[in-house]
Specification:
Shape: globular
Order of helices and strands: EHEEHEHHEHEHEHEEEEEEEHEH
CATH topology of the largest domain: DHBP synthase
Helix content: 25-40%
Number of domains: 2
Largest sheet: 9 strands, mixed
CATH superfamily of the largest domain: DHBP synthase
CATH architecture of the largest domain: Alpha-Beta Complex
Distance between the termini: 39 Å
CATH class of the largest domain: Alpha Beta
Strand content: 15-25%
Length: about 300
């Protein structure tokens, strides 16, 4: 799918939501306001659509993305909520609280959304524009902040345009956001509640840092259990080779050298290699900027000593 030559800005309306829903269902990301900041929303069940979020943002690492759903019932079909998580959801949803919970095995969420982790970050937003888009598409929507990676989070449509003009097809202008900072993130995966990111909602939870469990937590984590060698053009007998482009390998991220296709397959193939009989993993070189650089960043973290 070709990159847009220009980015349209349309005021929030029924027609704007219909156009945004059409684009989302076609695999494109669109910018939409939430009560916290503007989000860059794409179909969380479509790996290529999710890869296009990273492509548009120039995101330097495949960290987990928050998935937005219209209500608790939809969230409960995707994640497993213990008593503490349910209590928080009942108290604060819809609203600026994200809950990290175990991912249901049968949930049709692209592995790129969770960065290969067994947990998922879920939120029920309060903003009418995001709610309308969720209901118009009938899809869970992955939606990090709608800005180029490393830029200030956007609280107005003009902030989004200044950062992503020409990279996405559409921005829905819903005016300034109410909260202006990203959601509070709490992990409820067993044991005590853990505060992963402070935000608009105060939660009585243990504050933690370290491994990546949610957006905004950069670290070396979720690596395969086997040693990982990068930039391999050939392989030893004891290695499972993940190919790219001209390097075929035992399985390939993309035979044509397409970084979008490679991003959609990255975590699935890392899991496959980790389960293969060979005791080591090798990965072919992945040249290029943008999304290719993000793939290399993820692999370098996976290969880091631990």
């Amino acid at each position: 799918m070709a990159k847009p030559t220009r980015t349209r800005v349309i005021a929030f309306s029924n027609d704007a939501i219909a156009e945004a829903a059409r684009l989302v269902l076609a695999g494109e990301p669109v910018a939409v306001p939430t009560e916290t900041v503007y989000g860059l929303a794409a179909d969380a069940t479509n790996a290529e659509a999710v890869a296009r979020i990273y492509e548009a943002k120039g995101r330097p690492s495949f960290n987990p993305l928050i998935v937005h759903v219209p209500d608790f019932s939809a969230a409960d079909r995707i994640g497993e909520f213990n008593e503490d998580a349910r209590a928080l959801a009942e108290a604060h949803w819809p609203g600026p609280l994200t809950l990290v919970v175990p991912l249901r095995h049968e949930a049709p969420i692209a592995s790129l959304v969770t960065a290969g982790l067994p947990t998922i970050a879920l939120r029920v937003p309060a903003h009418p524009a995001m709610q309308a888009l969720l209901r118009a598409t009938g899809k869970p929507l992955a939606a990090p902040s709608a800005n180029a990676s490393g830029r200030i989070s956007p609280t107005r449509a003009e902030h989004v345009r200044a950062s992503l003009d020409g990279r996405i097809p559409l921005i829905i202008d819903g005016g300034p956001t109410e909260q202006g900072i990203e959601s509070t993130i709490v992990a409820a995966t067993g044991g005590s509640l853990r505060l992963l990111r402070r935000g608009p909602i105060d939660v009585d939870a243990e504050q933690v840092s370290g491994s990546i469990e949610a957006p905004g937590m950069m670290a070396s984590h979720y690596a395969p259990s086997k040693p990982l060698r990068l930039d391999a053009t050939s392989t030893d007998d004891d290695e499972f080779l993940i190919g790219f482009g001209a390097v075929a390998g035992d399985a390939t991220l993309s035979a044509s050298g397409d970084p979008v296709e490679a991003a959609t397959r990255l975590f699935d193939l890392l899991h496959r290699a980790d389960e293969a009989p060979q005791p080591k993993i090798a990965v072919a070189p992945i040249p290029g900027d943008g999304l290719a650089a993000a793939i290399r960043d993820r692999l370098q973290r996976a290969a880091a000593p631990r």
